[in-house]
Amino acid sequence: MDFAAPVSRKNRPAGFISRLEAFIADIIVLTTGGVFATWLFELIFRFFSLNIIFGNLRSTQYSPFIFSLVILVYFIYFWSLLGYTPGKYLLGLKVVRRDGSKLSLGRAFIRLIGYWVSAIPLFFGFIWIIFDHRRQGWHDKLADTQVIYTQGDRTRE
Amino acid sequence: MSVSDPSRMVISNEDETAGFNLRYSLIGLVFHAMDAGYDSVSHLDKAFLRAYTLVARAFSPLMRSRLWRPIQERFDLYSETGESIVNSWIRTGRREEQVSRALVRKQAYDEIVNDFIAYLAQKPEVRDLVQQQSVGLAEEIIEDIRENSSELDSLLEQRVYRLVRRRRIDDQTTPNG
């Protein structure tokens, strides 16, 4: 039995539940943003009468492209510039490199590709966070990153 | 200002128009008529009681006779009927007065609350305080979510490791430490 004194969670690797909650929050933000971007695209398309050149496009034709673009920009922008997405900020989490430094654009892109690597084998790459001693998913291992708690416990600080 | 002296509460305004004066005079008339009506009824009641006593005394031998009995019985019957009608009026009046009072009270209360809210909304100190309270509450909720999630992280790992009968090797060192 471990009788070691409890340590503050600040800067320690974040667990599966916190990260899952942050991801759900991000999906909500992304969906809203995607819908808004699709609407904006349609507005611009009509304003410039681009249907003369491209013909009458249906929203089902271009919305997957817009959603993909929104996902790409959203994650890469937030991870590389701030270190956290709105969902991760809400849960008090941050994505950093193993040495604690910020992610570069390229590394953020690799991490995003890693999401699909983790998701394709029935999300086992995400579930791996529970079993990994550094709480890293496959996407984290691929980009050499780590998700950490940014705040300590209120009772200890 | 003394509330017990209503005359001191009257606010006169020299700019009042004839229309306003007419309205006030009509309201005053209603109140004066009510007072006069109460006085008249009181006087009439006293006069009627005196007259009844005098007549009853004068005709007491007749009223005790057998000839008078059927008339007395009929009179009592009408009297009971009249009393029950008056009682029903009293009941209705009592009920309606309570309803009216409740309505007036509610109206007054709503007006006071609305005025008070409007007054508070204009105060920048109160607005700031409400804003601070809201932000503080939101922060508290977010912090609770974070702490609970963090505890759930550890709990889930403990359960899973117990399930797979493996010992956890912690390497949760800080990234730069």
Task: Provide a descriptive summary of the structure in words.
- The complex is a heterodimer of chains A (157) and B (177).
- Chain A has 157 residues and is mainly alpha-helical.
- Chain A has helices spanning 16-47, 51-54, 59-82, 86-90, 105-119, 124-131, 138-143; strands at 93-97, 145-149.
- Chain A is elongated and about 65 Å long.
- Chain A starts with 15 loop residues before the first helix and ends in an 8-residue tail after the last strand.
- Residues 1-5 of chain A have low confidence and may be disordered.
- By secondary structure, chain B is an all-alpha fold.
- Chain B has helices spanning 18-58, 60-64, 69-122, 124-163.
- The model of chain B has no long low-confidence stretch (mean pLDDT 83).
- At the A-B interface, helix 1 and strand 2 of A face helix 4 of B.
Q: Structural class, judged by helices and strands of chain B?
A: mainly alpha
Range of strand content of chain A: 5-15%
| Oligomer kind | heterodimer
Based on Cα principal axes, name the global outline of chain B.
elongated
Short synopsis of the structure:
The complex is a heterodimer of chains A (157) and B (177). Chain A has 157 residues and is mainly alpha-helical.
